[in-house]
Amino acid sequence: MVTNLITVTNNDIDTLRQISIETFSDTFGAENSKEDLEKYLESAYDSQKLEKEVENHESNFQFIYYQNQLAGYLKLNIGSAQSELQSDDALEVERIYIKKEFKRLGLGKQLISYAIDEAKKAHKKYIWLGVWEHNEGAIVFYQKQGFVEFSEHIFDLGGDEQRDILMKKSLI
């Protein structure tokens, strides 16, 4: 498998925005109203907001390429960049998205391995993430990677409050 991870920079904001909207819509569009989805996408993937996220030294964005084609991306957070918890012992996997035509090629597993390596380099004790309670495929995937449920939170998708399951994987 020929894959490549490339760090996202401010020069990549338009590409990051496009792949974010595409992959989020493909993953969650069918189960949500068009209005809620559009509100969320406009807010979450605003170019200026993405630029600030990419510039944050406590966040790490990686594009993953498969055979020289952009296949997905990953966003990791430590410290105050974490969406919640903000534990000094933790690294958050905030976003992990693969384009639909590149799913089932092992790319998600490769991105999780990268996240684990980054967490270990930073001497973190665990990694964590949130996953929508109805995204059963993702939940099973994370369980296979050694993640366990430990809490939940509310995710606001354009005004629609949804339950996310919080999962973590111990690294010690």
TrEMBL record:
Annotated GO MF terms: acyltransferase activity, transferring groups other than amino-acyl groups; peptidase activity
Pfam families from the UniProt entry: Acetyltransf_1
Positions of the N-acetyltransferase domain: 3-172
UniProt keyword Ubl conjugation present: no
The name this protein goes by in its record: Protease synthase and sporulation negative regulatory protein PAI 1
Keywords: Acyltransferase, Hydrolase, Protease, Transferase
Lineage start: Bacteria, Bacillati, Bacillota, Bacilli, Lactobacillales
Domain of life: Bacteria
Gene3D superfamilies in alphabetical order: 3.40.630.30
Keyword Acyltransferase: yes
Gene Ontology biological-process entries: proteolysis
